Amino acid sequence: MVTAQRINPSILSADFVNLQAELEAIRTADLVHVDVMDNHFVPNLTMGPPIVERIQAVSPVPLDVHLMISDADRWAPGYAELGAYSVTFHAEAAADPVALARRIRDIGARAGIALKPGTDPEPYLELLPEFDQVLVMTVEPGFGGQSFMADMMPKLRRFADAKAKLGLDLWLQVDGGITVDTIGIAAEAGADTFVAGSAVYGGVPETRIAELRAAAATHAH
Ligand SMILES: O=C(CO)[C@@H](O)[C@H](O)COP(=O)(O)O
Ligand SMILES: [Fe+2]
């Protein structure tokens, strides 16, 4: 069986003044990746619940919310409540990642855990049944348009191995520097869900999404 692959454009690279049109432009995507930043966990500031709620209301594709915020335990459940399809918080920002994932799942969203490049995956491997997706950051979180960190591939493989060993239906997501040139490297290492901001919005989004899909498919497991 070939693993399903997902392309999730990040609206961080979209024109925020024309967000509704930018959301329409990616209707062939699987999910829309929404980067929430608080200028505390990362040195950048984007949006909070009121704007994400409006995006949820008008988006033709479901929301994949990536929280780059401190005190995730306090804020993450609200994004599940407003209807996000998945809510991913950072391991480094949650006091109790398992309890938080359970709250997100109880509300009805998929629960994701994200790891910054410097974060060791080992403590999280045995917790994987508590999550629906793992996000391996392939740039330092905070900004779009950075270069893909190929040295994160051993971490991705570590999660892919643990997923296989435990027989889990877990999505492995990569975020940062994904292009037609790097997506195959990530797919090869076990990723099945690909976030791309500048690569999608830097051209005609529908064409870019199709190109990314084709490039990823040649490396599907
Ligand atoms: O979470 C982040 C950045 O912190 C990402 O989702 C970026 O928005 C991806 O942008 P590109 O690297 O694809 O341009
Ligand atoms: Fe992101």
Automatic annotation (TrEMBL):
InterPro entries: Aldolase_TIM, Ribul_P_3_epim, Ribul_P_3_epim-like, RibuloseP-bd_barrel. A divalent metal cation binds at H33, D35, H66, D175. Its cofactor is Fe(2+); Zn(2+); Co(2+); Mn(2+). GO terms for molecular function: D-ribulose-phosphate 3-epimerase activity; metal ion binding. Keywords: Carbohydrate metabolism, Cobalt, Isomerase, Manganese, Metal-binding, Zinc. GO terms for cellular component: cytoplasm. Its EC number is 5.1.3.1. Gene3D superfamilies: Aldolase class I. Binds 1 divalent metal cation per subunit. SUPFAM superfamilies: Ribulose-phoshate binding barrel. Substrate binds at S10, H66, G142, F143, G144, G145, D175, G176, G177, G197, S198. Pathway: Carbohydrate degradation. Belongs to the ribulose-phosphate 3-epimerase family. Catalyzes the reversible epimerization of D-ribulose 5-phosphate to D-xylulose 5-phosphate. This is Ribulose-phosphate 3-epimerase. It comes from Leucobacter luti. The gene is rpe.
